[in-house]
Amino acid sequence: YEVLLRCPYRSPELLITASEEAKSETSEIDSALPNHKPQQTHTSDIQTLKIEELFTSSTRRSGIEVLLEESVYEAAFPLHDQLIRKEDAGEPETWNDRMKLYHRWAKFRNIFRVQPIHAIRDYYGERLAFYFAWLGWYNSLLMIPSVLGIFVLLWGLLSVKYDRPTLDICNSTSSYLMCPKIDRQAYWFLNETCFNAKMSYVFDNSASVAFAILISVFAVSVNFLWQRQENRLQFEWDMTDIAEETETLRPDFERRARKTVINKVTDKLEPYVPAYKRLITYISSFSVVLFMVLLVLAVVAGIVVYRLSVSAAFNSIDREMWIYRWKPIIVPITGALINLIIILILQYFYEILAIWLTNAELHRTDKTYEASLTIKMFLFQFVNYYASIFYIALIKPLIIYKPTYLDRHLKAFRLEECDVSGCVWELSIQLIIIMVGKQLISNIWEFYFSKLWNMCRKRIQFRQTVRQINERNAKMTQMHKQTLTMNLKRSYEEDFLLQPFELTTLFYEYLEIILQFGFVTFFCLAFPLAPLFALINNIFEIRIDALKVVKEFRRPMARRAMGIGTWNSILNIMAKVTVLSNAFLIAITSEYIPRQVYYWTIGNRSLNGFLNHTLAAFHSSDFPTIINRTLLECQFIESRLFDLSKKSAFYLPFAQSNHLLDFDCNSPFANGIRSQIDFSTCYYKDYRLDHTHNYARSYMFYYVMVARLAFVIVFEHFVYCILFLVRNLILRVPRNVRAQLDRCRYLVQQMYWGAELYAQNPNLIKKDENRVRADEADHEHKRQSTLPTLMTTSNEFSLNNNASLDL
Fold first, then answer.
1. What's the pTM value of the predicted model, to 2 decimals?
2. Which among 115, 282, 595, 807 is most buried, taking Cβ atoms within 10 Å?
3. What is the 3-state secondary structure (H, E, C) of 211-222?
């Protein structure tokens, strides 16, 4: 027989065709029928509990989840309200809830409107509503860092021409002959890195350091402020004191568990998996996850080798070729693009692997299943996306070699060092490509994949239906075709052709934004525009997600929730990592600490001479014996002649050959260049003494190291002191909400211990009744007020409107 069940929150009917195996549940089902008249009126929350128990009950190997697991039915889901085209929908007052959400929330023209969070909750339930509330809240907080990031970038662009160290690098014509970094590289002049020096200062200046400090405070405060808003929504939606629901067993666990045991709480026989079997699966999962993490680290090592190979290839080509001038950009960009492609490929395969591993672990409930999947996915994605960036930010700046160490490392090369101006520019390129590229690809995939998936599914289903009818009737008339088309337009069939809303659908949406939060906060020093790009992405992310849940996905079962759950804990972890990341980024990657040490000690409140202070002199006679000094000089003289030939045709006959074997290193012009340049001394970036002191560390190296460590400690304590003040000055639970909660507890206490109070104060009963009615009316008014098509005003950005901004 067919059973029609009314879903919670004014949902339409849900159609389920029950089999004979479900006849034992007849009494329970009849009590939930719309036409059934129970003896007692239940609230919507109680109805929700009954329906969820009916749909997920597995205590007696029954329930729709078990039937779906055993492939008795293909799907079971709540039905959407009918989505009619706007021109055929009539007046807006007659629209159903889905129509209102589609036209007044999901469309891209609504990006500057307040999200109708209460209407979303009424139609989809609290779990989905909390996601959109949190995403909108996060967007509203991103506006301030976005504006500050623009000012920081403008400050760097406008002040770069006044920065003394940068000017010294660009104006040092032949003052600094730099030592070769690898044995295939010749001498080079410092002014060749002028572009890198300018771009490094644009992202690494005093304003960007202050911006990193503010972002760290923002990271540790955003989750605290969100929990304040979360508590307010919990109270409005009556989720503050929801009872701990009895977690039902997963059908897959019941089916695969071979033993039973008596539950000490329910005193009933339940499936059971021995601890040693679970331990084996956990160890296996941990081993696979560890292998995948090591694979990501191997990919990072491969990218490093690639960059070294490309750099060596550039050093072996002719300097007059146009591509040689783009070496500082081509090498990091191509490396970052390859890294992004590998990241996306590994992400795709690991998602499948993580789900398979979690299924193999035989989790008893959906809660433990989601927690295990969250840990696996977050750990791998954290390493997958951030490993290469952390390498450039925190490890590469520590790699400094003396010119005496020119023997090849890793069988072919030694590890790559940072530029004289630092690694900030390279870090910026890596961050821009991975963050922006990942978000762009993800949004395009989400937007078009759902449409393509539904279109293909409809075509396949239509062909299957036609084939079934052809089997029954070899000759299909036009009337049959019309009937077939009409039948396919029935609401439950249309919803069946939509993409299913899986248990992990919302999980991937959270994970995407959490990873974005890391890009915004971890490396803001290297990319001040990260909050702006995140804000722009999230504006479209909300609309894309809204379109998916309203139009492209089946309607999910309304599930109650007290907030975003485990993601609050993950956000707290990310905030702590943010503080450490920014502290070490300023101390190690940035040139801020060395500049400040020089400014306040040797420089006499000036940066004049800072460049010379950071360079160490090296005597060419101390090169290893495997290095041919004459060959290095000839390579440099040849490249110098080619540079001169571009400026004057007089040198052109002496620069015709592209090969060193055809070049006369003892020609008059070559000897003239040799006489102008002192090859006896070259420079490299490090705090070391000269050859008379055997290139030992100078005292400034230790001054700078102590200053860097002191900055990390001071920075960390400063941020956490601000967080301590915020948590003590701003209540986690708003005062009005706390007052209402105390009032509720007081009334409950009076119900148990002071029932005579109402007898003595009859006016109190009427007062409480009026307050309850007013609260219900206020909630309904807020739900309706968020639906009209009105542009947001400045008052709508107040935190007291209990609606989440989606800017």
1. 0.77
2. 115
3. HHHHHHHHHHHH
